[in-house]
């Protein structure tokens, strides 16, 4: 049994568990009350706030505890936008932000705001100068993650923060994936994070609003948390979250080196062990524990099931694993293959032997899925010669079938000939060009067809 | 040491503690994931939802877990109003709702909505026919608490629900104070509650939206909790909350009888033991564990400190205990004395000997505060005869000083003569008329003065 989905959630840190138990007894009362149980709760809350402020590198009165990281982002984005509504109604986000940021942006757009989504390179990173170019006179807020949750790529936060500072625009950093590893560098204005990513309990998010940042809380408020997070404070969980943050930070430097070595091993060995695999994300500027790859001709959900049967818990950005049947917006923005996508995110303490066992199990798991799907054998298809244009009808077939069908027939057209793949699965738009890139074939483009789209590929070799 | 502020929060129920510990180990993963840790978390969440649905008396797919009772109210009110925005922009609440409801109403008003605040009688209850009269063709939502959080008075929810149903208006019931005691009767449409009031952990609220009720979630959403509560589910806390609800319900019938007897004892004995006290709230239709009284010539905060020193944790609706320096809106709506206000709310399991000790300690605590403030002795003042109109200047003096000064001089005017109390403390508006009622003097009315108001009292006896 190996849990390799730390980017989603990690089990409670032993230190957090201890702190939670103690503060269930000591911190259940209302900290706004004057009697001893209330004062005791207030002391615990104050101490937790100090610990978190120290870990973040901010003042205690800049820290707001929310009920989740998602809530911290929603509150932070809405409050900062409202605080600067006289400046303008323009918001900048990167194209690969967490859904909580993108959903906030959609709400802002629906209310009449304008949103610029800064693109990323094939490694998943924004270009700081492209980000800076998006800043306008009416920009109310800029948002950038410290590191990407799906591929682990670190963003150039300090440089973007500098550009924002120069333009007088506050930058909100979504530090959900990185805060356990260290402070966010650079002169940011707001920060959001989530405790259950660093071994704290669920139910605690963190919103930091620097002094001097204009902020107008939205919706009904109360007196708690500086009027920025309504509702009874969850003190036992907050205390546990703070304790856990201190504990993982104490272990962070050594553990980062160890996990980086393990993920480097996965990055290097998976393409050797498994044919037709693309490892995605920045190879160097990345989170220590995250490695993501996509496997041609593989159904992500089926692969997750195979790996689960073998005792490995990982996640996937493939469309077949999402309820919306669209591939991950991160992989789409990067322009990389989404089919057969696997994210391995190692929790602190992940065992080397589990990683080795994963590497030994993965090739068989991928092969089993490919066999069930009738995937073509690896390598370029054998030349064939009937006609110079072939049409493959994959309408109604889900990822990765359209790509599998394409691969099966590419050898049937001569070099210079074309294959038209008819498909209505959203993933085909991403995966057919990605297949061409991996296979050295030419992606000509897409055209509307009777049902869905026609994706045209020219054989080059 | 006795904690008598259960209406604010109660310590974790032992059953909840056990459930929390178990599900910290089993329920920390993302329930949306396909791997075993995710499936295990999903099973725990589903089981908790079933237990809560059974306790509430609703379908499992009507239950939404939020991060607090306040959040449940905010989400429920906003979602129901938005769901019926085509019907109209009129909201009905009672004047004595929890601040989370009133804050929601204020936001709705600021956005152009109209709010009717249904008054209450001197016992704190709405009149069902007055509530029904407030229903209009453009009423989008009606809100009523099941029982009041400050004085314990139960509201006629079933009758109001019937009137709302007849008018086709959904009724949202804030059941925060009563859900641990039993299901909410009547044909309500939405329900909100908070787990830490029934011995669950903080961090769990409950929103129930009946099938068929129009509901449009506001703000950024995600796929969790039917799109009605964004953010990672706090499963360990939800499991603990459900376990606690079952446990307190199993004990509710017997415990209600026991606590009702204890609070009845306080209701009866406090006026015998302490002079110049008004017990407020409905003597019969009330929560089992809550009893509230106000003491003339007493500073609520000072009394809370005295009682805390004696080992009793209670709360107060007096203005001097709130950061806004206004008396509780509940006491104001009831038109009862707010000074020296004490709410005793017994948690399940409260010991009889602690209640007896409270009764033995209270008279001395009140007397000590009165002595410090220089309060007049109890009973009608001795007749005096210099002039038939006296002016008392209490500008800049906080509650209960204006009333104390009034009581000191009332004997200096002849029967038929008047006292004008100049005061700028908001509590005087409530407490001077209440004093007149308690003392059998005539409250003539208020007039604007150079600073603050002049409150005019005529001596009748």
UniProtKB/TrEMBL annotation, chains A, B:
Q: Please give the catalytic activity noted in the UniProt record.
A: (sulfur carrier)-H + L-cysteine = (sulfur carrier)-SH + L-alanine
Which branch of life, at top level? Bacteria
> Which InterPro entries is this protein grouped with?
Aminotrans_V_dom, Cysteine_dSase, PyrdxlP-dep_Trfase, PyrdxlP-dep_Trfase_major, PyrdxlP-dep_Trfase_small, TusA-like, TusA-like_sf
PROSITE patterns noted in UniProt: UPF0033
> Which residues lie in coiled coils?
none
Needed cofactors, names only, are: pyridoxal 5'-phosphate
Q: Which is a Pfam family this sequence falls into?
A: TusA
Entry keyword annotation includes Transcription? no
- The residue ranges of the UPF0033 domain are 392-416
- Assigned keywords, A-Z: Aminotransferase, Iron, Iron-sulfur, Metal-binding, Pyridoxal phosphate, Transferase
Q: Does the keyword Transferase apply?
A: yes
* Gene Ontology molecular function: any one: iron-sulfur cluster binding
Stated family: Belongs to the class-V pyridoxal-phosphate-dependent aminotransferase family. NifS/IscS subfamily.
**What's the protein here called?**
Aminotransferase
Taxonomic source organism: Streptomyces naganishii JCM 4654
């Amino acid at each position: 049994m190996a849990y390799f989905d730390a980017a989603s959630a990690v089990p409670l840190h032993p230190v957090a568990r201890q702190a939670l138990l103690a503060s269930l007894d000591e911190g259940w009362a209302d900290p706004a009350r004057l009697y001893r149980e209330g004062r005791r709760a207030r002391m615990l809350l104050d101490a937790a706030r100090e610990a978190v402020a120290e870990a973040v590198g901010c003042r205690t009165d800049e820290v707001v505890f929310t009920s989740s990281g998602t809530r911290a982002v929603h509150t932070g984005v809405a409050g900062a936008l409202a605080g600067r509504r006289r400046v303008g109604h323009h918001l900048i986000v990167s194209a690969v932000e967490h859904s909580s940021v993108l959903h906030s942006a959609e709400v802002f757009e629906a209310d009449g705001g304008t949103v610029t989504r800064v693109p990323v390179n094939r490694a998943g990173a924004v270009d700081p100068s492209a980000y800076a170019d998006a800043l306008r006179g009416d920009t109310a807020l800029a948002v950038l993650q410290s590191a990407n949750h799906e591929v682990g790529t670190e963003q150039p936060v300090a440089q973007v923060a500098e550009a924002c500072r120069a333009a007088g625009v506050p930058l909100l950093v979504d530090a959900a994936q990185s805060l356990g590893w260290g402070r966010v560098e650079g002169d940011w204005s707001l920060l959001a994070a989530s405790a259950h990513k660093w071994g704290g309990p669920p139910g605690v998010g963190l919103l930091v609003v620097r002094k001097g940042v204009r902020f107008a809380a939205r919706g009904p408020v109360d007196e708690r948390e500086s009027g920025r997070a309504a509702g009874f404070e969850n003190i036992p969980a907050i205390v546990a979250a703070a304790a856990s943050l201190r504990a993982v930070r104490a272990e962070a430097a050594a553990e980062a080196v160890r996990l980086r070595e393990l993920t480097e091993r996965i990055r290097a060995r998976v393409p050797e062990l498994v044919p037709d695999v693309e490892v995605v994300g920045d190879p160097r500027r990345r989170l220590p524990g995250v490695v993501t790859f996509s496997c041609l001709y593989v159904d992500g959900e089926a692969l997750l099931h195979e790996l689960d049967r073998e005792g490995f818990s990982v996640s996937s950005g493939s469309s077949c694993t999402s309820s919306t049947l669209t591939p991950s917006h991160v992989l789409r923005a990067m322009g990389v293959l989404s089919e057969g996508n696997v994210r391995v995110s190692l929790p602190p303490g992940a065992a080397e032997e589990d990683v080795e066992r994963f590497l030994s199990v993965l090739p068989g798991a991928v092969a089993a899925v490919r066999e069930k799907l009738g995937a073509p054998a690896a390598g370029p298809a054998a030349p064939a010669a009937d006609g110079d244009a072939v049409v493959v009808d994959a309408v109604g077939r889900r990822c990765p079938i359209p790509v599998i069908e394409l691969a099966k027939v590419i050898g049937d057209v001569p070099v210079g000939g074309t294959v038209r793949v008819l498909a209505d699965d959203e993933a085909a738009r991403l995966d057919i060009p990605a297949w061409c890139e991996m296979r050295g074939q030419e992606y000509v483009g897409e055209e509307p067809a009777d049902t869905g789209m026609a994706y045209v590929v020219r054989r080059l070799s």
